[in-house]
Structure formats: C-alpha cells, structure tokens
C-alpha cells in the first residue's frame, strides 16, 4: 500500500514541472510545488538504474532548476521500491566493449577517458547546484546511486534502505564522485571498508557512520521528512541560503575536482583488464566473479 499511497499523493498534489518548453525526460520526472522541486529517478532500467539518458539529462535538469528563482530547495528520490540500482550495466555495456577487446590501445582509452569526464558532469551538476538538495532514499542505493547521494546536501533514508559502494565488485574504481566526496562525509576507516569490500550496509549502519542524517520507518515518511526540511529551507532568504552553501562548498570544491580528474585518468589507463571482463560477465550471468588480478 505504501507505494500506491505515495504515487496517489504525488499525482494529486504535485503538478508536472516542465523545464524549458514543457520538456519531459526519460530518466527522471521533475515536479514543483511551493518553491520545492522533486526530482524522481525513473530509470528506465530496472530499479531506476542509470542508463545513457540519466547521464545526458541530469546536467540539463539541474542547470534549469538552479536557474529558476522560484525553486528554493530540491528533493531527489526514486520511484517504486528502490532509490537506484546504480549504473545500468546492460544499457552502458557499449562503453566498456572497446576496453575489454584484446589489445585495447590509446584510442579506446582516450575515448573512455572523455566518456568518464562527460558522465561526471551529471553528478557534478547536482553537487554544484546553488539550490540545496535533499535525498530521500528507500530500498537499494548502489554504486552510482551512492555517487549521487554523496553530491547532495542532506540525506534521509527509510528503514529498508541498503547502501553499497559496489564498483569494486565489477573491477572498477568508483569514478563518479564517491571516492571524492565521501571523505568529507564519512570517517576514513568507514569509507575504506565500504569501498574496498563493496559490502552492503543497512540504514541503521548508514545513520551510525554518518552517511544519512536520519532514518524513518518507511518510504512515505522519508519523503515527507525530506519535503518538510525542504520547506524550512525554502522559507529562508534565498541569497543567504546560497551564500551558506557556497561558503561550505569552498572546503571541498578544489579537492573534489582534483580527485575526479585523477580517477578519470587512472581508470582510462588501468581499468582494461581480464578482471573487468570477468566482473561484467559475472554480472550478466548472475554468478560470483572469479578475479585473478590480471
């Protein structure tokens, strides 16, 4: 019933917010009411997975919201039972194909480096948005989804939420922002445990280590809490809010930028491997990977 109630409430009270000339998107819906926008991940991949449309549309969505003076806070959530499964590996498989071909040389590595930098812009658009952002997380939040919530200002979770910095399980070094931004959110030991193991943690553990601010009983309460906080922010003078966020962000801007450039170059140089091929193959086959370090 929770999801049905949630959908009914949104349909009744949240008018569709057309960016530009009433534009709609494949990977998200955008709605607004009372100076608060809600960006809802919708996939189209399973579990709101992040496919090509997500990486292309997010910069446009957040640049438009940031330019709209009537939007003073933004809530990000996922449709259905999960926030997001992260990278849509089947849909994005073509990006990896040239890298896992035998003898991948400079051209595919250069193209891959360019693609990483392009995709990073999707998460950077959220982090660089002057308007405060709040994530309401339910169900799974994996890989790229952790990159996304690491870029927002405030994070709430439902009791059923589960988090994983999963990239290591694919033989990938997380390159969309988790390793750049989580050091400013988590202690070093907790971050290294999550990134090096790829383990799942529940909402209670996420709250304990500071990944989320608060945990609520279910998705409806989590979304309501996010909107309540967004309304509080929206009621404050917008220029002061922008200033507070800008000053706080100064602590991380240069460090994050340098980290993102470094990891993009690192993955372009060293990611091609038999382990990458094995990680992707195991994902498609739904079996445990057997890594050899080659």
UniProtKB/TrEMBL annotation:
UniProt pathway annotation: Lipid metabolism; fatty acid beta-oxidation
Domain of life per record: Bacteria
Enzyme Commission number(s) from the entry: 4.2.1.17
UniProt enzyme class: lyase
Entry keywords, A to Z: Fatty acid metabolism, Isomerase, Lipid metabolism, Lyase
InterPro entries assigned: ClpP/crotonase-like_dom_sf (IPR029045), Ech1-like (IPR045002), Enoyl-CoA_hydra/iso (IPR001753), Enoyl-CoA_hydra_C (IPR014748)
A biological-process GO annotation: fatty acid beta-oxidation
Region forming the signal peptide: none
UniProt keyword Lyase present: yes
Keyword Endoplasmic reticulum tagged: no
Record GO terms (molecular function): enoyl-CoA hydratase activity; isomerase activity
Classification via NCBIfam families: PRK06142.1 (NF004794)
Family that this chain belongs to: Belongs to the enoyl-CoA hydratase/isomerase family.
Protein name per UniProt: Enoyl-CoA hydratase echA21
Source organism per UniProt: Mycobacterium tuberculosis
